[in-house]
Amino acid sequence: MIRNLLLALLATVVVAVTLAALALRDNPARSAVGETRVADNHGAQIRYVISGPANAPLVPLLASFARSASDFNELVLALNAAGYRTLALQARGVEGSDLPSMRPSLFDYAGDLAAALDAERVTGRVVLVGHAYGNRVARAFASRYPQRVDSLVLLAAGDSAPPPETRDAIMTVLLQVWPETTRRRALQKAFFANGNEAPDYWLSGWHPRAGLAQAYATANTPSSQWSGGGDAPMLILQPLHDAAAAEGAQVLLQRFPQRVRVIELHGAGHAILPEQPLQVRDAVLQHLRVRIAAPLMPDQPNIASSIPMTVAAGVMATAACMAARGRICSP
Description:
With 331 residues, this protein is an alpha/beta fold.
């Protein structure tokens, strides 16, 4: 009798361990555009991807929750073509970056970016782009290192927990214990606006242990220490169909009307980058041109003059809108 109970208990433990291992296994992402390099942050080896013309203004990019820097691939190519150099950080536990602790703070992630900038000998102020969870790291970086930040561009910005239904959908995508059809439905619900089909590379590219560490960091780093983003100006690109952070932009605008501008993007959810890549590209480039000029590369046409008239008109209208303090703009 006791022997049978012990065998049953052992079988249960084996099944539980096996399911946990399956759920927490990484699902590698597509390759990131550029050259992968490594920075050391107090013994933690952090990977980042460099791309674009040497000696050009550097734009750091911080990816979403448990996601790879390769989510920025299309934006990286656009910024490089416009004469900017990009540094896309692979967060702790993602695509080869060390995960030295499951109990980090947001400032540990900010320190990882500081280490990468030091490795690239970047001493000036940067315009920092953060998507979703990366927006939290961007604000933590601006709070800890205000002297290194010119301004922030935040895509789908939020700092509170998503609604329960969206949170459950995110966990369904993150933990690989459900069939692909179930995960794809959850992905659409949590990250994409109706009518926008999620690309296959968004079904892959998830790093569960990294995500659990990031969740711990948000829950255990007091928001008063990071959510204000120091004193940096903030441009927020707010998807109008964001199931995870619908109120993030409004909250920041109400708190900091003097230094927050919001551009609303139609036809986009929390994923935003694969949904409205041209609108994101135009808004980021317009902000960069205002804040940091990019030198033209040899034989490179003036990017502004090559933008179609309809897009150029939209960019100019958005710039005029943003000149009105505290106003929300829709391109």
